[in-house]
Design a protein that fits this description.
- It is globular and about 60 Å long.
- The longest helix has 18 residues.
- Helix content is 68%, strand content 7%.
- The protein has 18 helices and six strands.
- With 379 residues, the protein is mainly alpha-helical.
- The model has no long low-confidence stretch (mean pLDDT 88).
- The strands form two sheets. It has a three-stranded antiparallel β-sheet.
- This is OmpR/PhoB-type domain-containing protein.
Length: 379
């Protein structure tokens, strides 16, 4: 999440080897302001977000802001919490100078790029975020791809729906933001069709990914024939790219298609092939996703206890990777499946609660509204 790293279990925040310990509500308030940095919020907004089930007063917000300012004083060169007259408060993140020491050679940059590529491929989101957060300290600047991608990975979704990046640079991300936050599969199908019409403006690797992603969108909309037909161009992409990551991505979509069609044995065959790849290359994002899918297969087989254990385990693996989009999509996949098939009302309620919490934290309604407005302006 940018310059700061977070320890949710101990309410600690970290930067460049320094740690600040906060109280639980201070931590929640600071995390919210930091997530939506450079935006002003009223006291009422902050009360609703940080104290939703309590009845504090405006004074509660003021007291917590006062304590946060004192504790964050030594990081005043990084950020400030400002009072916005007539509104409330805003966390302002200060621009940091980017040193370019002459001693840093092209070999250094190439080594950094290799690290980024490795961490990306292995699903090591925390490592990626650490590099991203400490570019200034380490003396390098990420290329535009990773600078944008890591905003997405870290959950800085608001940036994508604002006016900053041009549409051609963010169209791929807008589609995925809508896809992962929308439960209604028909609405997602409409967004897919819009994205495919504009796909030529995307970089080639994103166009390739769209061919694979379309399988699952059609499947979740119960467009079975279109989904099966889409397997062919998607498989051609995988063969051309020849990447284990793309292979696993394709097989995850293929397995989910068979699962949603009720062809459990076929889904399990795909999962088995994927697990053989993961034994050689333990990519944590993919491991979490396939663990969830195996759990959903067990629901079809009426093995309730094992199914519950695996879907919970898979989601926790995704949570540990620090890839926020994968966590959200994993929760959506579980909830949508349980709603459609009705195997486990207790776990459906559990995942509805998880989904609601994610929706509030990352403002799904706001993101969807902004994305639909962007689409309307391009038609």
């Amino acid at each position: 999440m940018g310059l700061i790293t977070w320890s949710d279990d101990s309410y600690q925040i970290h930067y460049a080897g320094e740690t600040i310990v906060l109280l639980p509500k201070e931590y929640a308030l600071f995390q919210y302001l930091y997530t939506w940095k450079n935006r002003a919020f009223s006291r009422s907004d902050l009360l609703d977000r940080v104290w939703p089930l309590e009845e504090p007063t405006d004074r509660t917000v003021d007291d917590h802001i006062y304590r946060l300012r004192k504790k964050l004083q030594k990081w005043s060169h990084l950020l400030t919490i400002d009072t916005v007259r007539g509104v409330g408060y805003r966390l302002t993140l200060k621009e940091q100078p980017s040193p370019s020491p002459s001693v840093l050679t092209s070999d250094f940059s190439e080594n950094i790029q290799r690290m980024l590529t490795t961490y990306h491929g292995m699903g090591m989101g925390a490592a990626l975020q650490t590099l991203y957060a400490n570019q200034q300290v380490l003396g390098f600047q990420m290329d535009s791809f990773y600078a944008t991608y890591l905003r997405f990975v870290g959950g800085d979704f608001g940036w994508f729906v604002e006016d900053k990046p041009p549409l051609s640079d963010k169209l791929f991300y807008l589609f995925h933001l809508y896809r992962m936050t929308e439960i209604d599969s028909q609405k997602t199908l409409e967004i897919l069709q819009w994205a495919l019409k504009n796909a030529k403006s995307m970089p080639k690797n994103y166009q390739d990914e769209m061919q694979i992603t379309a399988i699952c969108v059609y499947a979740q909309a119960k467009e079975w024939e279109r989904a099966k037909k889409q397997l062919l161009p998607a498989r051609e992409v995988v063969e051309r790219v020849n990447s284990p990551g793309f292979q696993l991505f394709f097989q995850a979509e293929e397995a989910l298609l068979y699962l949603l069609m009720g062809e459990v044995e076929e889904a399990e065959k795909v999962i088995q092939r994927s697990e053989e790849i993961l034994q050689e290359l333990p990519m944590q994002r993919e491991l979490g996703s396939f663990t969830i899918t195996r759990g959903l297969c067990l629901y079809h087989r009426q093995e309730l206890a094992k199914a519950r254990r695996l879907v919970d385990e898979g989601l926790e693996v995704l949570r540990s990777t620090k890839f926020v989009p994968h966590l959200i999509y994993g929760a959506k996949m579980i909830l949508s499946f349980l709603k459609d098939f009705g195997y486990d009302r207790e776990w459906e309620r559990k995942y509805q609660k998880i989904w609601t919490e994610l929706s509030e934290e990352y403002k799904f309604d706001y993101l969807q509204k902004k994305i639909r407005a962007i689409i309307s302006s391009t038609i």
